[in-house]
Write a structure and sequence with these properties.
Distance between the termini: 29 Å
Structural class: mainly beta
Helix content: 10-25%
Number of strands: 13
Largest sheet: 6 strands, antiparallel
Strand content: 25-35%
Order of helices and strands: HHHEEEEEEEEEEEEE
Number of helices: 3
Shape: globular
Low-confidence stretches: none
Strand order of the largest sheet: 1-2-3-12-5-10
């Protein structure tokens, strides 16, 4: 993925967040130069991968396969120093993009349409070995519980949400013609290195072609503490 694509996605997301008056913590506005002077008091950001995250899943087709997101807060079950049991993200998905089919081995999460267009989700149960089942899927949607056929389109409008338990395969897109969507995620602790199971084995983080200077550092790029 080109650095210019990453920079462009971050700028578009900053604009969308501004339009929705969603204020960000100060560190998310830091330049790469500011990160060089950040001491150990910011280790929680580094250790728990807080911050900007733009991915094309290693496929080089960000406009079709990819999302931009920010991890705002996160605990760490592998480090007793960090005792939060929860995480929060804010995500931007644009028309034409897909967040590919995956589930989490451990994490339970709520995905909320915070504004913009409509989302279309497709859900499947996963077997214990990670295969996709064709059984009916139980839906937990804003206090309502019901079942749908495996892979059935589920339309989520602004303000609505879905709950995903471990072993719930899910993918989502923007309903064509409705515009980019700002998505909230509230979950158990997030571990993108070990807890994701993609149906097709995509790398979670992109390889970056440095065609211009970084505008913001991604959560995988922080320098060591000063």
């Amino acid at each position: 993925m080109k650095r210019s694509e990453i920079n462009g996605a971050i700028r578009r997301m900053e604009q969308m967040l501004g339009d929705y008056r969603f204020a960000l913590p100060p560190f998310l506005h830091w330049t790469p130069e500011q990160w060089k002077t950040a001491g150990h008091e910011y280790d929680e950001i580094r250790d728990n991968m807080l911050g900007w995250d733009v991915t094309d899943y290693g496929m080089g087709k960000y406009a079709e396969l990819g999302i931009a997101l920010i991890t705002l807060r996160n605990g760490n079950v592998k480090n007793k120093k960090y005792t939060k049991t929860y995480a929060e993200k804010i995500i931007m998905i644009e028309e034409g993009q897909v967040s590919p089919m995956h589930f989490h081995w451990s994490k339970m999460e709520d995905i909320i349409n915070r504004g913009g267009g409509n989302l279309i989700f497709r859900l499947y149960n996963a077997t214990k070995d990670g295969a996709m089942a064709d059984t009916d899927v139980e839906i937990n949607r804003d206090g309502r519980r019901y079942t749908v056929k495996a892979g059935e389109d589920i339309l989520i409008k602004p303000g609505e949400s879905l709950t995903f338990y471990p072993y719930y395969y899910h993918e989502f897109i923007v309903e064509p013609g409705t515009g980019s969507v700002l998505i909230g995620e509230v979950s158990m602790c997030n571990d993108d290195n070990t807890d994701n199971r993609f149906l097709e084995q995509y790398p979670r983080f992109p390889k970056i072609e440095e065609d211009e200077a970084p505008y913001r550092l991604l959560c995988t790029e922080y320098p060591p503490a000063a």
